[in-house]
Design a protein that fits this description.
The chain folds into two domains: 5-35, no CATH class; 61-314, Up-down Bundle (Methane Monooxygenase Hydroxylase, Chain G, domain 1). With 316 residues, it is mainly alpha-helical. 62% of the residues lie in helices and 0% in strands. Bound molecules: protoporphyrin IX containing FE. Residues 68-69, 72, 118, 138-140, 142, 145, 182, 185, 254, 257, 260-261, 264-265, 274-275, 278, 280, 284 line the site of protoporphyrin IX containing FE.
Length: 316
């Protein structure tokens, strides 16, 4: 290849870049002579990625279960990057807001649609056997799922609905955390005791969640919305992208997930108990949890009917 004027210009720019860093560009050029070119498999760390499936049993469908959880966690990670980036922005405008929340919505659309991989994609008898080798682990312990909630809304909206009004006005995240709604999901149905699933989860993540709650006080997505100009806040497209986010995370995903619990754990006579004996039928459906990130954007009737339609159509 000819040493063109364009190439010389690039070399000169690179020389300046390294000089500014106090480095000798020649040495870096020599490094380039010896370096391997990038390959697809190294770039995306394919060997590592494909070595991360370590089933606990020899039932083939356990790998489907592991991989779909891993896929979900990767989408959660993509969503969290957007939440954090939005939180950092001091001057937000409506098109950027719609664009970035739209990304999060697409990740959840993909997850909701693909949940059929779980619902229809495993042999029920195999599932009921291999799940016993995983106890007390549960998707309940997905820290990224909890982070998404903390990044979305003011912490008060994550407080269990029966004490939410009482706690309104409390500013300390550690006090609100004591009443976070999901503790009920890992409490023994009969004795009211915390399950090992919950005890271990809190041991590992409690401090992290409280710190994140403090970090997100002024940086969660709802606060991002409130930083928009009044005119942008009133824009129907802005409100719609947030309502879609609320629907995706708090109705569509939980219902797709609930459908898989019904498919594998529900029985004609007596339902299969969930991890640690929790009452998943009374906990998982969104109409019971009434988790709403942006309550101001819904009507009273919509609050009342939260998550009801789908359940009535599909499960009754
Ligand atoms: C056949 C597939 C699945 C079944 C039968 C199932 C079942 C359950 C059950 C019974 C619970 C209640 C807590 C417990 O007792 O463990 C739960 C919670 C949970 N699972 Fe799954 N699950 C499945 C797949 C998944 C997948 C793929 C994910 C993705 C990460 C996931 C994430 C969660 C989360 C985040 C919770 C807590 C939900 C909340 O607090 O509202 N699960 N699951």
């Amino acid at each position: 290849m000819e040493i063109t004027a364009e190439l010389k210009e690039k070399l000169s720019q690179l020389n300046e870049k390294y000089a500014a860093l106090g480095e000798d560009f020649n040495a870096y050029l020599e490094g380039l002579l010896h370096a391997d070119v990038t390959t697809y498999w190294d770039y995306i760390q394919l060997d590592t990625l494909l070595s991360l499936q370590k089933p606990k049993t020899s039932f083939p469908d356990e790998v489907v279960f592991i991989m779909y959880h891993q896929i979900t966690e990767l989408y959660f990670k993509l969503a969290l990057r957007e939440f954090e980036a939005l939180g950092q922005m001091t001057s937000l405008n409506k098109s950027h807001f719609i664009d970035r929340v739209g990304r999060i919505n697409r990740y959840f659309d993909a997850l909701v649609k693909s949940f059929e991989v779980m619902i229809d994609g495993m042999d029920r008898e195999e599932f009921l056997k291999f799940r016993m080798s995983l106890l007390p682990a549960s998707g309940f312990q997905s820290a990224q799922y909890r982070e998404i909630e903390i990044y979305s809304t003011d912490f008060i909206n994550l407080v269990a609905k029966d004490v939410r009004e009482e706690m309104r006005g409390v500013d300390e995240i550690d006090q609100l955390f004591d009443h976070i709604y999901w503790k009920a999901g890992a409490t023994e149905a009969e004795s009211g005791k915390k399950t090992l699933t919950l005890i271990q989860f809190e041991e590992k993540y409690k401090n992290h969640f409280i710190a994140l709650g403090n970090h997100c006080k002024h940086k969660n997505l709802w606060q991002g919305y409130l930083r928009l100009s009044k005119e942008d806040q009133a824009d129907e497209n802005v409100k719609q992208v947030l309502r879609q986010n609320d629907t995706n995370v708090n109705i569509n995903w939980p219902l797709a997930h609930y459908k898989s619990a019904v498919k594998y754990l529900a029985r004609q006579d007596k339902d299969v108990t969930a991890t640690g004996g929790t009452n998943w039928q009374k906990y998982l459906p969104p109409r019971f949890q009434k988790r709403i990130f942006y309550p101001e954007l819904w009507t009273t009737k919509e609050h009342e009917n939260w998550g009801k339609m789908w359940v009535e159509d599909n499960l009754k």
